[in-house]
Amino acid sequence: MTRSLNAILIFVSLIVSTYSLFAKESLETKPDTTLNIDQVVVTATRTNVNRNNVPLTISIINREQIEQSSESALLPVLSQQVPGLFVTQRGVTGFGVSEGSAGTINIRGVGQGNKVLMMFDGQPQFAGIFGHHLPDAYVASDIERVEVVRGPASLIYGSNAMGGVVNIITREQKENQATLNARIMYGSFNTQKYMINSGYRKGRWSTFFSINHDRTDGHRNESEASMKEIMKNLFPNADQTYVTATNSHFHITNGFGKVAYKISDNLNATANISLAGFNSTNPGMVNNPIFDNTIDVLRGTASIAIENRAEKVNGALRFFYNFGNHDINDGYQPQDGETPLNYKFRSHDHNYGLQAYESFSLLPRNTFTAGVDYKNWGGRAWNAFYAGGSSDIIDKTVNEAAGYIIMQQGIGNRVNLNAGVRLENNSTFGLQWVPQAGATYTPFKGNSIKASFSKGFRSPNLRELYMFAPANPNLKPESMLNYEVSLGQSFMGGQIFAEVTGFLINAENMISVSTATGKPLNINTGKFTNRGIEAEITVNVVKDFTFNANYSYLYLGKPIIAAPKNQLFVSATYKPGRFSLNVNLQNIGDLYTLVGDKTTPDQIESYTLLNAKASYKFGNETRGFTLFVKGENLTNRKYSINYGFPMPGVVIFAGIDIPLILKKY
C-alpha cells in the first residue's frame, strides 16, 4: 500500500509540473466542444475526444432523452436506448437487493456477477462486499447525460469493467441564473413520485441540488387469507401457522448535491454527494413465496475533484468514497418447514480511492493519457440476533493500485490509431496486464469505420471468495477478449445517423458453482463465446418529428440469464409547438429467465411492449408548467424478466412538471 501511495504522489507531482508548462495556452480561443454531446465523449480516454475518433463502440443518452421518459430511475431508460444492453426488472419502482433482486445490467450477454461497471463522473460505484452496482441509487433527475462503452473498458477502469462501462455524468447549472424545478406524478398501484431540484450559477460559483421521493404499494399485494389459500393450493402439506400477508411495497428517498468553483481559466474544483435510503418487501416467486423478507438500505457516495484544462494538457485529481448500510430480514418459507428468523443480516461496506490522470499533446494530432488509481473496498457482514449478540460472517478489505497509459495518433486527416496498456496490482490476486488497441478510418465526410481489440477482467468479490457455502478463497480473476468492427454514417448534415457494429467475445476462467466432495464450490472453469450485431438509427428530417430505433442480435455460446437473443426498440416523437407525443415499442425475443438442468427445463420469454406519453406546456419560459400522462405496457402483455416475478400489466401515470427561472444574472 505504501508503494502504491508513493507512486500516486510522484504522478501527481508530474501533473503539476506538466501543467505549469502548458497552462498559459488557454482553451478560450477554442469552442467548448463538450457542449456538443452528440460528438464528444470522455469515458473512453478520460479526455474530451470526438466520438468518431474513438475505436470503441459508445452510446450517448442525452438529457432530452432522459426527460422524455419521465422515469425517476435511470436504468429502464438505458435498457431501451442502448443496443445490446439489457436490465432485469421486477416492475413498478425499485430493484431491491438480496433474494429476487433485479437491476442486473448485461451488455452483449456479459454482466451477471458485477461484470459491467457503473460510474458517477468516472468514479466506480459498487457495493464493497458483494461487488454489485446500486440500481436504486441512479436517479434520472440528477443526470446530464450517460456514456455507455459497449465492450471491455478495463484498460482505464480495471476490474468490473469487463463487459462494459456505464458512466453517469451528473448535472450542473450551465446558465448564469437561478432555477427551480418540480415534478409530481401519481399512477397505478398508488404509486407516487415527487421531485424538486434547484440550480444556481453566478460568477465563479455554480450549484445543483435535488431531492426525489418514490413510494408505491406495488403490484403484488395479497392478504393473509388469500395467501393461506394460495399456500394451501401450492403446498398442501406446508405449516400454515406462519403464513401472513405479502406485498411488494417500495419507498425510496434520494438526495444529490453538487458544488463547482472556477479557480482560474484553466482550473475547476467540484464536490458532490449523493444519498439514497430505501426499504421494500420481497414477496418471493409466485410459486414459491417468501414471508417477512424485508430490506432497509442506506447508500451514499461523495467525491471531490480538481480539473485542469488547457490547450495541450488536461486532467484531474479525484478522491471518492462510497458506503452502504444494509439491514435485511431474509424471510422464511413455511412450505420448506422454515419458521420466522430470530436474527437480521447486517452489513457495512465501503469503496474509496483516488484517481489521477493527465492528457498532453507533444506532436501534431498526438495525445498521451497517463493515469494512476488506487481503490480500497470491502466491509463487514454479520447476523444480529433479536435477543442480543451477533455472529460475524466476514470482515475483509482488498486494495488495488494501477497505472495505465494510452496513446492516440492521427495519420493524415483520415486515420486515427489508439493503443494502451494497464498494469494493476491486487492485494489478493497479484498483477494483471490489460492491453487494448484500435483504429478509426474516415474515408469521406460523415463516415467512420472502427476496429478494436480489448481485454476485460473481473476480480472475484468477497462473497465468492469468503461467504456462504460455495466460497473459495483460491479463485482467480475472470477474463475475456473482445473484437469488434463498426461502420457509422451521417446523412443530410447530420439529420440522419446510422451505425452498425459486429463483435466477437471469448471468455475464460469464468466462475461457476461445481460440486466437490459433495459440497458446492466456486471454481474457475467456465468459458463462453458470444457474437452478435448491433444497429441504431436516428432520423430528424421532418420538422417537429424525430424517429430513432436500435436493434441487437446476440448469439450465445451457452445459455445466459438476462441476455436476450433479439432486442428491438423503436421510438417516434412529434412536438408541434406546446404539444408533445411519444410512442415507443420494445420487443424482446428469446430471453432466458431460467437456465435449467436435467430435472428443470429452461424458461424462455419473448414479449412486445407498447408505451406512450403525451404532454402539453402552459405558460412561458420563466413561469409555466407542463401536464403529462404516460402509459406503459398498453397492450397488457403478461411476461416476466426475473423468473417467478411477474411484471405488471397496464401501468398509467399522470403528472405535472413545473420549471421556473427565478432570476437571471
Structural account:
The chain has a 22-stranded antiparallel β-barrel. Strands 3-8-9-6-7 form a 5-stranded mixed sheet. The chain is 8% helix and 57% strand. The protein is mainly beta and 665 residues long.
Task: Looking at this protein, list some descriptive labels.
665 residues, mainly beta, 22-stranded antiparallel barrel, 5-stranded mixed beta sheet, 8% helix, 57% strand, disordered N terminus
Distance between the termini: 48 Å
| Total number of beta strands | 37
Structural class: mainly beta
Broad shape: globular
Q: Average the pLDDT over all residues and give the rounded result.
A: 89
- The low-confidence parts are 1-38
Helix content: under 10%
Instruction: Indicate the proportion of strand residues.
Output: over 45%
Largest sheet: 22 strands, antiparallel, barrel
Count of individual helical segments: 6
Radius of gyration: 25 Å
Concise synopsis of the structure shown:
This protein is mainly beta and 665 residues long. The protein has a 22-stranded antiparallel beta barrel. A five-stranded mixed sheet has the order 3-8-9-6-7. A two-stranded antiparallel sheet has the order 1-2.
Write the SSE topology.
Blueprint: H1 2-22, E1 40-41, E2 49-50, E3 58-61, H2 63-69, H3 75-81, E4 85-87, E5 105-107, E6 116-120, E7 123-125, E8 143-149, H4 154-157, E9 164-170, E10 177-187, E11 191-202, E12 205-216, E13 221-222, H5 224-234, E14 246-247, E15 250-262, E16 267-281, E17 284-285, E18 288-289, E19 291-309, E20 313-332, E21 343-360, E22 366-385, E23 390-411, E24 415-426, E25 430-441, E26 447-458, H6 462-466, E27 478-491, E28 496-516, E29 519-539, E30 545-556, E31 566-574, E32 579-594, E33 603-619, E34 624-632, E35 640-642, E36 645-646, E37 651-664
